[in-house]
Amino acid sequence: MKTIRRIARKEQVIELVGNDFEYFDENKRSIDINKLQCLPPSNPKVIVCIHLNYLSRLKEMQRTQPKAPTYFLKPVSCLNYHKGNVIRPPGCKFLNYEGEIALVVGKKAENLTPEIASEYIAGYTIANDFGLHDFRETDQNSMVRVKGFRSLGCVGPDIACDWDYRNKAIKTYVDDNIVQESNTNDMIWTPEYLLADLSRSISFEEGDLILTGTPANSRPVSPGSIVKVEVEGLGTLENMIVQGEESVHTNWGAIPMDTHAIREIALGSDHTNK
After folding, report:
1. Which residues share a beta bridge with 96?
2. 71 in helix, strand or coil?
3. Which among 113, 41, 101 is positioned nearest to 231, based on CA atoms?
4. Residue 131, Cα to own-chain centre: how many angstroms?
């Protein structure tokens, strides 16, 4: 299986192309990629995420299945990478992990149908769509601040070009404890459907990302925790939570909040069952 990893070396961006996550230099010597700084595996101009796409998450949120997917955008400025630090600002406490799979667009895609959408997919990578739910009530469903805060868009480490997403295990760990566990067969809409649906209104280019949803049990994490997302056949994405140095301004603009509605989202059944 062809795999791709982007790294930083001597202030240069280098794209490594390998086979089954093994990479070689120009002299055909194996590269120890664990010693190299990862970068996001693509350079997207657009990042789109689906709100709800796993039946377990739908059940946890006590929602009925919508007739069509709904989405939100993440700004590319929040993009982060394998082993990059995720910032929780001082004064905030509802920073939630969301282990996901990201579709990587392979070429210009407009007005597709689900039947041909796979031809426009370069491959798949792992994502952790962190959300800062302290701002959940400020932007309604656009979630600009919830999902767009600096460092919250973790993707990587590799793109797997010939990976079949069907019937694959997906797990999220916090400090080596499993906190999310599901299977891609629990998805409501396939990646091809999502790309085709969105391409009716959005013009996608090579490297753009579509995040395909998270299973049940997204919960807040604290500084010092290490969060890993493991997807069968894709590897592991790892990030550490760190305390930010600068507090969010609270004397003007939207401020972090702690309400019943926010706790229902951030804590899920841990809150509603109390």
Report:
1. 131, 220
2. strand
3. 101
4. 10
Is this model's pTM higher than 0.70 or not? yes
d(CA 189, CA 19): 29
* Rounded CA separation 231/210 (Å): 16
Is CATH 3.40.50.300 correct for 40-272?
no
- Tell me the C-alpha distance between 24 and 243, whole Å: 37
Backbone region of residue 56 per phi and psi (left: phi > 0; alpha: psi in -120 to 50; beta: other values): alpha
Taking a C-beta distance cutoff of 8 angstroms, is the pair 198, 204 a contact?
yes
Residues 95-153 have pLDDT tens digits of 999 999 999 999 999 999 999 999 999 999 999 999 999 999 887 778 899 999 999 99
Distance CA 135, CA 70 (A): 20
ω before 157 within 30° of 0 (cis)?
yes
Query: What are the pLDDT digits (tens) for 51-87?
Result: 999 999 999 999 898 899 999 999 999 999 999 999 9
Beta-sheet pairing, 235-243 with 71-73: unpaired
